[in-house]
Design a protein that fits this description.
Elements (H helix, E strand, L loop, with lengths): L7 H15 L1 H36 L3 E6 L2 E6 L2 E6 L8 H7 L2 H10 L7 E5 L4 H10 L2 E5 L9 E4 L2 H11 L5 E6 L4 E8 L2 E8 L12 H4 L4 H13 L4 E8 L6 H4 L2 E6 L5 H4 L11 H10 L5 E3 L2
Length: 306
């Protein structure tokens, strides 16, 4: 899939790099998979959104109408909220634009005393400073300096050739990139609403078989100190609703104590992360308090997501 709003040659270059590194058979199979996903993913996303909001609306005695594909009107009495997909209008446009600017986010988090990785901003067409950073602070992660959702992010970078390929992949989404030290530990997505922690999901690395031991309760055990840190991250950026990604060896301690760090703050967090978990029957129904915030404290009579 070609980069959004960028010259298509970057997408072509990424495909040529894939072809050169893996061979034509794998590259062709990958292209066919991406084409198939373009058809399946939008329908799947729409189905998830409909299920999430319908369940939350039943809990709050509200009604849901899909006014167009992926766009829902949720009504309770005289109050109406309109949501698009999983995106709600709890955050201001200015706060959402700020959260998409990762270098500025890191600067504000650091100014607030919140743990973040060592990092460097660099241009996609000039890797000199990034190579020096990698030699000093590897292994590293490379990501676009703008955007959200994990597009163009590559981890476990240890060599100059891996850096070149990661920068090429990330450049499909932004011309300015970030390289940062890879923090040891696991990735946790922490969902925050109005300063309160709603849920925590441990984002496991891909595996063929789970360990069969971890429970939902264990996954959501978070220290009060860490909860305060992620709430502060959302507050610094002026976000009512945020998905804060942290890497830490343990969620049972403050990031500053565990050596963990905040690696991203998502202004439009995907609620499906909190529904599609191991032990789904014990999952947290995060859409209920989010919808309650929309219906109980409207900022406008009709709140429209971006």
């Amino acid at each position: 899939m070609l980069g959004r709003g960028l010259p298509t040659w970057r997408g072509v270059a990424a495909r040529l790099d894939l072809l050169r590194s893996t061979g034509p058979r794998h590259a062709w199979h990958r292209l066919q998979q991406e084409r198939a996903l373009r058809v399946v993913v939008p329908s799947r996303r729409n189905l998830i959104a409909r299920e999430v909001w319908s369940e939350a609306a039943r809990e709050l005695d509200a009604s849901v109408t899909e006014i167009e594909r992926g766009r829902f009107e949720i009504r309770r009495g005289a109050t109406v909220a309109i949501v698009t997909g999983q995106t709600v209008a709890l955050n201001s446009r200015s706060a959402m634009a700020l959260a998409a600017d990762k270098p500025t986010v890191y600067r504000l988090l650091a100014d607030a005393g919140l743990p973040i990785p060592e990092r460097l901003s660099f241009a996609a067409n000039d890797l000199r400073a990034a190579r020096v950073f990698l030699a000093r602070d590897g292994p590293c992660v490379v990501k676009p300096a703008r955007g959200t959702g994990g597009d163009g992010v590559t981890g476990e970078i240890r060599s100059a050739s891996e850096l070149r390929r990661a920068a090429l992949a990330a450049s499909r989404f932004a011309r300015q990139l970030l390289i940062e030290s890879q923090v040891e530990g696991e990735v946790f997505r922490v969902l925050v609403l109005d300063g309160q922690l709603l849920d925590v999901v441990r984002r496991r690395r891909p595996a063929i078989r789970g360990d069969g031991r971890s429970t939902v309760e264990e996954l959501i055990f978070v220290s009060p100190a860490l909860a305060s840190e992620v709430a502060a991250a959302a507050e610094v950026l002026g976000l009512r609703l945020a998905g804060v990604d942290v890497v830490t060896p343990t969620p049972a301690a403050a990031l500053a104590a565990s050596g963990g760090a905040i690696i991203d703050v998502n202004e439009a967090p995907g609620l499906h992360h909190h529904a599609h978990v191991a032990g789904v029957d014990g999952g947290t129904r995060v859409a209920v308090p989010i919808l309650r915030a929309l219906l109980d404290k409207p900022t406008e009579r009709e709140m429209v997501a971006r």
